[in-house]
Amino acid sequence: MDGNKDRQIDSGNFQGGDDDGDLRRGPWTVEEDIALINYIANHGDGRWNLLARCAGLKRTGKSCRLRWLNYLRPDVRRGNITLEEQLLILDLHSRWGNRWSKIAQHLPGRTDNEIKNYWRTRVQKHAKQLKCDVNSKQFKDTMRYLWIPRLVERIQASAAATTAVDGNGSYGSVAPPLMNNGSDFVSTSQVTPSYASENSSSGGGSSDGTQGSSVSELTDCYNNFGCFSVGYGQDTAPPPPPPPPMQSSAVGFFNEGELDFQAMEQSSCEWLAEDGGVDTSENFWSTAGPGTDYFWLLQQHLN
DNA sequence: AAACCGTGCAACCGCTGGGCG
DNA sequence: TCGCCCAGCGGTTGCACGGTT
């Protein structure tokens, strides 16, 4: 998130440096970023190996592509994953498993790398706390019946608070919850992913075995709350099975099972507290991104 | 104040699949 | 059909940072 930290490294000294020919590795310098941005601005992207050479970058095409897509692209969004995005990620991962790029397609401005990192650092961490595997039924149940409903509640609450600011639902003194370099904007109360039909047929089994169980149930959960318009597309998934009764507390579900409800409840609270305890959107601008030192520096160079 | 540790994330690596000659 | 090149994907690594001891 903090792109500035990379600037503190003399990347020429980065381990693995220049031992294979002329190629540089490690963190990108401001000069390299500028060269890449300028080149793409003038010639467009694609043909990455050629691009790297023509732009005078001593980088592999891969490296250039990654840098552009994950960091320099103007529409890339940085900052905390919002509650809505968390919901989407949980849901989409339950459908598709570790298909990060596919998941990222439904989160405008987010990169597969970012989502992957989010999953590994947050979600897997909580699975570990529960001493269960992220692919286990236990963990999926925890998501479905605890975290998802809580996320939905929080989103609803913040949406309600937002509309209470003034009758029009516009933001008073509060900054809009989510912005992206001034381009696209996603309001707190609406996330409308357009699921394409690609998801539905398989019904199970990404190649890595992370596929979820009965698919769209997660989304059903928050559909029931009526705060999302999740479009499955007319031609897409078969009608989902009747959703389980929604409860803000999961007690009912776990009487019958052997799940460690207390641990889940606690973990759920911790998770939501750390990500959403403070409206993640409010400190969006405090993180790296447009307006931060590094982007300011880049802008100065480009102007 | 210093050492240590956990976390987050940028960047790299290896693999796969598609396009083309 | 085969081999090469390239783009893209998922997994992994390494490091800076912030918090804790």
From TrEMBL:
Its main location: nucleus. It comes from the Eukaryota. The keyword Oxidoreductase does not apply. GO terms for cellular component: nucleus. GO terms for molecular function: DNA-binding transcription factor activity; sequence-specific DNA binding. InterPro entries: EOBI/EOBII-like_plant, Homeodomain-like_sf, Myb_dom, SANT/Myb. Residues 20-72, 73-127 form the HTH myb-type domain. Pfam families: Myb_DNA-binding (PF00249). Residues 20-72, 73-123 form the Myb-like domain. Keywords: DNA-binding, Nucleus, Repeat, Transcription, Transcription regulation. PROSITE patterns: HTH_MYB, MYB_LIKE. It is found in: Nucleus. Residues 1-25, 182-214 are annotated as: Disordered. SUPFAM superfamilies: Homeodomain-like. This is Transcription factor MYB78-like. It comes from Cucurbita maxima. The gene is LOC111470802.
